[in-house]
Design a protein that fits this description.
single chain; about 230 residues; mainly alpha; 3-stranded mixed beta sheet; two-stranded antiparallel sheet; elongated; SKP1/BTB/POZ_sf; SAP domain-containing protein; BTB/POZ_dom
Length: about 230
């Protein structure tokens, strides 16, 4: 499959990437940079990037699909991944947030999770940025990053958190995640099969083992596992 990456001769899909960005008012404007052309195969996109596959018409390479608001280098990495390519750890660490955005936008779930893990490993949380980071995690359903933020808050000095962190801009639904993090810290361990106390990595593994989707908030993961009818077993 990798040998067909960006193969113009066999491709049935063509992309023109770049050239337009969103202005501050939300209106499109032409960027100074020229577009970059990429070729792909719809069958591989359907399997690995379904949202991207839905955007194009296979077979009509004379009418390329325009992809805006993404760097060509990031789009190239995403396509390469869809063909079975491996993105280096250094690349993911340096561009983790851009890769999260692209993977989330085009439905490349495994790449999104890999990029999220790199972002979790490299992000430096402080009292000044914690609400911004956790709000971003919530908006993109980055359950692992959200858990990292809640662990940071629950393990910090409570009076210092109260003095230095403004919770006015934090989505109210995240209070439950904070309570779970505090409870987990107090008990030091979770009872086997207690979904509410499981780590995100455990929930994702359990969902994967049951053939369920692994992209989503911890609430979505728990609901999916419970709907599967075997939430109490590991």
């Amino acid at each position: 499959m990798l040998k067909d990456f960006d193969n113009e001769e066999t491709a049935d899909v063509k992309f023109e990437v770049g050239g337009a960005v969103e202005s501050a008012t939300g209106r499109r404007k032409r960027a100074k940079a020229s577009t970059t052309t990429f070729h792909a195969h719809h069958i591989f996109l359907r399997l690995n990037a379904p949202a991207l596959a839905d955007m194009c018409n296979p077979g009509d390479v004379s009418a390329p699909t325009a992809i805006n608001n993404i760097q060509p280098a990031t789009f190239k990495d995403l396509l390469y991944y869809c063909y079975g390519g491996k993105i280096s750890g250094d690349n993911l660490r340096q561009n983790s947030k851009e890769m999260i955005e692209a993977a989330d936008r085009f439905g490349v779930v495994n790449l999104k999770l890999e990029a999220e893990a790199c972002y979790v490993d490299t992000v430096e949380l402080t009292f000044d940025n914690i609400i911004g980071v956790v709000s971003y995690a919530d908006s993109k359903n980055l359950a692992l990053l959200k858990e990292r933020c809640m662990d940071f808050l629950s393990s910090a000095n409570k009076m210092e958190v109260a003095r230095k962190v403004s919770f006015d801009d934090m989505p109210p639904r995240l209070v439950k995640d904070l309570m779970v993090a505090q409870a987990r810290g107090e008990t030091k361990s979770s009872a086997s099969g207690d979904l509410d106390m499981m780590r995100v990595s455990q929930l994702r593994q359990l969902a994967h083992d049951k053939g369920l989707g692994v992209d989503g908030s911890r609430e979505m993961l728990i609901a999916s596992i419970e709907d599967n009818g075997e939430g109490g077993e590991t």
